[in-house]
């Protein structure tokens, strides 16, 4: 009886103890995304961090966070972070999908009905974000996002942002009136920053990579052949040398191609975020503000070089330092703030290096597979044209106007053909996915069908969904600029990401349980005392304590 009484008293005291570590109501919430920052990378480099990632690791650190859906790409992943919804709720099922009426590809942040194909905005996003909730609760809240990618900035911003910035090759940081206000107060700071940067670059061409890398990174430097493209594996990469002697190099395609996948790109984003914080006076208004910053270079480096070489080793040190500079800026404001950090998806190394290191992997020509399937179906079934359009998320869409009477037989024949292929692990149809109930909880234990279901949208999901075998690298690189490695699978190396919460004075805790990126928005809403709608995620009591309702 005494033990029961003591246990009851401890249970009553636990929330109070937790709440003692809670921050005051923040004046600024900061959502940091590191593109393609898998939990595998986090685990591998965690002990080497000395900057921002080390500081955030001292907060409430979940090493088993999940982008629990199947569509592990940039746009879907960013869409989950501040909406609390899976892609099945955000409608952002992939970076691109096929319009069933036209057969044309639809980019996730393209704007329907706009004659300008380059128009960008959140119109395809079917959910509201934390920023939208904050603006509804108090219109004085400001919502600002910055990223190296348009889709990352827009997905974090939502529908009512005050300023949405992304890097546009050759132009610098830009915005769009379809994504957020494009008033002089928004566009002029970007124009001044861009002019300053380009002037410095023309006066003294920038170093895209450090001249010397840490010894731990140079130890990884060795040549590889990915597909038919040979990489030196050295720092700095050979292609980065000699390109900046062109008079127009800041706007040249060659320079921009290298810039995104270099050690210069994330510091550039951090510098601009610093400028935006001051220009918008974030955290110093009458209400709580929201800043979203998405660092994109880890993804570009992972695609261009794989994540197992010297290039990614250097990039980890660079993004650690960039986040450290951002946190130092936040410290200087003298206001209470809260930071959350996660990734939009993970990634795997290039198949060739995975195999060299003892992990079975293979390179897959997904577009070639789709072409071979179409050829086989035409031959066997006497079809006048190819029945399927391949979409980048390893989905197949029946062509517009395809005979409905043949849709069922052709789909069944295609599934049977695909299941004979050695590179294919699993094939499901849209009807099979639609029949799966939406799962609740347990992100690590979701079946493959449930992972597909969390990415399902009745209008935007393909007719056939393909899962390639583990550690597959999609594509056949032949030159610099081609992707040698990537992501987008249902496997945990693409789904598992770190999720970190930090504020000044936080009591550091490492949590082993699995949580989801959809839990971030309701948790931050609770800390900001902002009402949140019912979403797929839950408020994390381990973080927000009694603030959760």
UniProtKB/TrEMBL annotation:
Keyword ATP-binding annotated: no
EC category name: hydrolase
Cofactor descriptive note: Binds 2 Zn(2+) ions.
Cofactor(s) needed for function: Zn(2+)
Reaction catalysis annotation: a phosphate monoester + H2O = an alcohol + phosphate
Signal peptide boundaries: 1-20
Entry's EC annotation: 3.1.3.1
Protein keywords: Metal-binding, Phosphoprotein, Signal, Zinc
Protein name in the entry: Alkaline phosphatase
């Amino acid at each position: 009886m005494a033990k029961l009484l003591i246990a009851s008293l401890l249970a009553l005291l636990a929330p109070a103890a937790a709440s003692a570590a809670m921050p005051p109501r923040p004046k600024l919430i900061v959502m940091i995304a590191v593109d393609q920052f898998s939990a595998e990378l986090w685990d591998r480099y965690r002990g080497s961090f000395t900057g921002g990632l080390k500081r955030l690791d001292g907060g409430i650190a979940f090493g088993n966070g999940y982008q629990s859906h199947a569509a592990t790409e940039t746009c879907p992943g960013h869409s989950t972070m501040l909406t609390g919804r899976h892609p099945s709720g955000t409608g952002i099922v992939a970076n691109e999908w096929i319009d069933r009426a036209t057969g044309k590809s639809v980019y996730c942040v393209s704007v329907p009905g706009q004659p300008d194909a380059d128009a960008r905005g959140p119109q395809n996003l079917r959910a509201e974000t934390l920023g939208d909730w904050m603006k509804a609760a108090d219109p004085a809240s400001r919502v600002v996002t910055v990223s190296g990618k348009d889709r990352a900035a827009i997905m974090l911003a939502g529908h009512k942002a005050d300023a949405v910035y992304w890097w546009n090759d050759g132009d610098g940081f830009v915005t769009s009136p379809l994504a957020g206000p494009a008033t002089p107060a928004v566009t002029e700071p970007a124009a001044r920053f861009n002019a300053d940067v380009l002037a410095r670059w023309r006066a003294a061409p920038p170093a895209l990579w450090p001249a010397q890398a840490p010894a731990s990174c140079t130890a990884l430097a060795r040549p590889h052949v990915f597909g038919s493209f040979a990489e030196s594996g050295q720092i700095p990469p050979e292609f980065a040398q000699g390109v900046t002697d062109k008079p127009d190099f800041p706007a040249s395609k060659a320079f921009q191609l290298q810039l995104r996948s270099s050690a210069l790109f994330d510091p550039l984003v951090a510098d601009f975020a610093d400028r935006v914080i001051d220009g918008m006076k974030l955290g110093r208004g009458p209400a709580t503000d929201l800043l979203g910053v998405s660092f994109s270079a880890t993804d570009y480096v992972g695609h261009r070089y794989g994540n197992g070489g010297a290039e990614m080793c250097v990039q980890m040190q660079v993004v650690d330092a960039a986040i450290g500079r951002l946190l130092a800026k936040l410290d200087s404001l003298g206001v209470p703030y809260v930071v959350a950090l996660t990734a939009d998806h993970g990634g795997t190394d290039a198949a060739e290096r995975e195999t060299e290191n003892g992990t079975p992997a293979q390179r897959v020509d997904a577009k070639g597979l789709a072409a071979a399937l179409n050829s086989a179906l035409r031959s066997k079934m006497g079809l006048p044209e190819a029945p399927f359009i391949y979409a980048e998320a390893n989905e197949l869409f029946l062509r517009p106007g395809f005979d409905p009477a043949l849709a069922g037989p052709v789909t069944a024949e295609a599934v049977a053909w695909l299941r004979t292929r050695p590179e294919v692990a699993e094939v499901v149809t849209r009807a099979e996915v639609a029949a799966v109930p939406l799962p609740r909880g347990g992100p690590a234990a979701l079946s493959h069908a449930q992972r597909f279901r969390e990415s399902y949208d009745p209008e935007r999901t393909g007719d056939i969904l393909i899962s390639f075998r583990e550690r597959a690298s999609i594509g056949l690189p032949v030159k610099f600029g081609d992707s040698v490695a990537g992501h987008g699978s249902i496997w945990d190396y693409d789904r598992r990401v770190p999720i970190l919460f930090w504020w000044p004075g936080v009591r550091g805790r490492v949590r082993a349980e699995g949580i989801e990126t959809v839990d971030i928005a309701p948790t931050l809403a609770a800390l900001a005392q902002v009402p949140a709608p019912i979403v797929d995620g839950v408020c994390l009591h381990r973080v927000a304590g009694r603030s959760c309702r």
